[in-house]
Amino acid sequence: MLKHHKWKLFFVGMGANLALIASLAVADLKVLAEINWLDVLSEGGAAMLALVWLGLILHSRPAGRVTQYLSLGLSGIFLAGFQDLLDEFIRFPEATRWDHWIESGCMPIGLVLLTLGIFHWHKEQLSINEQLRKRERLFREHRCLDFTTNLSGADYLRKQLLQALPEHRNAEQSLALLFIDVDNFREINRRYGHQQGDHLLQSLSELMLLNIRRSDVLCRYAGDRFALILPNTGRVGAEQMASELSAAVQHFAYKTHHEDQSLFQSVSIGIAVASSDLALADSVETLIERATISLLHAKEKSHDNLHRAA
Questions:
Q1: 305 falls in which pLDDT band (50, 70, 90)?
Q2: Are residues 294 and 160 in the same domain?
Q3: Is 220 helix (H, G, I), strand (E, B) or coil?
Q4: Number of structural domains the chain divides into
Q5: CB 58 within 8 Å of CB 2
Q6: Spatial distance between the Cα atoms of 301 and 107, rounded to a whole number of angstroms
Q7: Domain limit, last residue, from 72, 98, 133
Q8: pLDDT tens digit string along 150-194?
Q9: What angle do CA 264, 252, 123 make, to 5 degrees?
Q10: In this structure, are 165 and 294 located in the same domain?
Q11: Global pTM?
Q12: CB distance 245 to 227 below 8 Å
């Protein structure tokens, strides 16, 4: 992982070297009797710990906003501590003030950046924990999971609908079913191979799990088609969820393993909302049928728009 952050380490090392060279150029070394070794131990230890923390962060995290904040913050704290350590060995002239600016400037700036990084790291961890809770529910119930995406399949979808439809009718609440189909997925398989296609489906399933509620149920229905059950959700809420998922997929850049490029996908989404009216009550199969028809209409519309754009 460190190879992805080599420039960060280079600039930290360069900054420390410049501070050392500049200090030696304008100041004199102290004699041993003038050195306060307790200050050397505390200030040097703080600087070294900041450097160790920086190395651990860069070794364990991918590049991104959180890593950037954390690394910049720890770099500032290290440089402030390093300059403070140099003061214990070097006697600066009274007219020299830049060393104080390094100590007094890098430390608060580093702490602010480190705090921002920890804040965004906390938000990131909450999202990861939410996804893990959804995954945990799958494994605790010992469902038959799809090997590629680790999602439940069509059989589980039918069982969930069979249980949920009467409950929502009795409570006079709506329930929505979304069918989500990856556009032009055959072209991905043809051009990059089925292994890359499977990796794409796995990535998209993780992305969608991050964007749904804890009560929602996401399944892999068949092939490149996913199904999403939205409890207590009417037409407006279902359309909003469909719009959010579509936008999330469109902004997701999938990196292929063999080519240095990003693939941007789109999805077509069909929506069927189960009515709470007993006279218009859906069965599992009729709800799935209506979601399928809605999906076909969405794909036709997407296909027509593509041809018009061409």
A1: very low
A2: yes
A3: strand
A4: 2
A5: yes
A6: 57
A7: 133
A8: 888 898 899 989 988 888 877 777 899 999 999 988 888 888 888
A9: 175
A10: yes
A11: 0.55
A12: no
